[in-house]
Design a protein that fits this description.
InterPro entries: Aldolase_TIM, Alpha-hydoxy_acid_DH_FMN, FMN-dep_DH, FMN_HAD, FMN_hydac_DH_AS
Cofactor: FMN
EC number: 1.1.3.15
Helix content: 40-55%
Bound molecules: ligand FNR
CATH architecture: Alpha-Beta Barrel
Protein name: (S)-2-hydroxy-acid oxidase
CATH topology: TIM Barrel
Order of helices and strands: HHHEEEEHEHEHEHHHHEHEHEHEHEH
Number of helices: 15
Strand order of the largest sheet: 4-11-10-9-8-7-6-5
CATH superfamily: Aldolase class I
Family: Belongs to the FMN-dependent alpha-hydroxy acid dehydrogenase family.
Number of strands: 12
């Protein structure tokens, strides 16, 4: 069963006005198994709800009578300019949402002049994505049991002009996503990694989801700080560590030579009851103490969420599900519209808070629960 696009249903004049509406359209457009895979989180989905709810508990402190006739949202990361601090998070298998898959997403990112992080589980070949547009791309990697596969992927990414490696460190084993288990989730398209490992795409799982079995066979639970050293030794690209939510690990990441830290709980798909990322951000920012940029992802659904993340010290945010929902509803145009809506909302929040540039967004513009106690 393929997703039905919005256009196919004659609704192009009636575009969604926010991310939530895109989510509703995506739910209608996608087979349940795919929607659940995209939307779902680990176990009780406590962290999934918290990623969003915690943003709701942070209030804004607007400043008035400041000339906001010109707002500049642009920023840069590792020397690469972006039109706003809103990036595309690595999420796997975009062909589940649209036949053009990651190529469509990359074009949307390029049109919005932002950075896309391509997932290891891309359903389009890395080469295809690289040649489809001139978006700045980072490549997301796991360290596999088979180090040669990880090394090959890094070399491919390097030679195709990817600008950084995003090493996901919160997945030594796969979190328990019960919807996928219940639905016996399978991926219809073989991805890059399946190709490389010469794995049979029909992994023949019994009971659990095939994703679980794939993870068991490939992910290395012995992953440690030594592997970060190893990765540094095989590439000259900067390495960002994705999946850090504590000050302790943030300090270690800087010591290990990470070029950036991404506060993430994998969209609440790994450890349930891990903290909401916006709640963990400030602790990490303090520990990193400006040594490297700190990014955050998880639960960003509004421009005001982006504003709050900036105020608490993030250099930029990444969005995962919202882009996926846009892609499912309207293909490339939908993914692009989602990013543009978030940008417009951020611009509005900045104007109403009296901030003319991202540098002017400060800690004093937000009130967290901690501040109110
Ligand atoms: C992910 N995420 C993810 N992360 C990663 O490092 N590699 C991956 O392949 C994937 N795949 C993936 C698939 C899907 C469907 C989702 C929803 C998420 C996590 C992702 O990069 C990011 O951390 C979260 O999506 C951020 O949360 P929001 O924006 O989805 O709330």
């Amino acid at each position: 069963p393929g997703p039905k696009s919005l256009e196919a249903r004659g609704m192009e004049d009636n575009l969604p006005v926010n991310v939530r509406e895109y989510q509703e359209l995506a739910e209608k457009a996608l087979p349940k198994m795919y929607y659940d895979y995209i939307n779902g989180g680990a176990e009780d989905e406590h962290t999934l709800r918290e990623n969003i709810a915690a943003y709701g508990r942070i209030l804004l402190r607007p400043r008035v009578l400041i000339d906001v006739s010109k707002i500049n949202m642009s920023t840069s990361l590792l020397g690469y300019d972006m039109s706003s601090p809103i990036m595309v998070a690595p999420t796997g298998a975009h062909k589940l949402a649209n036949p053009e898959g990651e190529v469509a997403t990359a074009r949307a990112a390029a049109a919005c002049n932002t950075i896309m992080v391509l997932s290891f589980a891309s359903s389009c070949k890395i080469e295809e994505v690289a040649s489809s547009c001139n978006a700045i791309r980072f490549y997301q990697l796991y360290v596999y049991k088979r180090r040669d596969v990880s090394a090959t992927l890094v070399r491919r990414a390097e030679s195709l002009g990817f600008k950084a490696i995003v090493l996901t460190v919160d997945t030594p084993v796969l979190g328990r996503r019960e919807a996928d288990i219940r639905n016996k989730m399978i991926f219809p398209q073989p991805g890059n990694v399946v190709d490389l490992m010469s794995l049979d795409n029909d992994l023949g799982a019994e009971g659990g989801s095939k994703l679980e079995q794939f993870a068991r066979e490939t992910l290395d639970p012995s992953l440690s700080w030594k592997d970060v050293e190893w990765l540094k030794s095989i590439t000259s690209l900067p390495i960002l560590l994705k999946g850090i939510v504590t000050a302790e690990d943030a300090r270690k990441a800087v010591e290990a030579g990470a070029a950036g830290v991404i506060v993430s709980n994998h969209g609440a798909r790994q450890l349930d009851y891990a903290p909401a990322t916006i709640s963990a951000l400030e602790e990490v920012v303090k520990a990193v103490a400006g040594a490297v940029p700190v990014l955050v992802d998880g639960g960003v659904r509004r421009g005001t969420d982006v504003f709050k993340a900036l105020a608490l010290g993030a250099k930029a945010v990444m969005v995962g599900r919202p882009v996926f929902f846009g892609l499912a509803a309207r293909g490339e145009a939908g993914a692009r519209h989602v990013i543009e809506m978030l940008k417009n909302e951020l611009e509005l929040a900045m104007a109403l808070c009296g901030c003319r540039s991202v540098a002017e967004v400060t800690r004093a513009h937000v009130l967290t629960e901690g501040d109110r106690i």
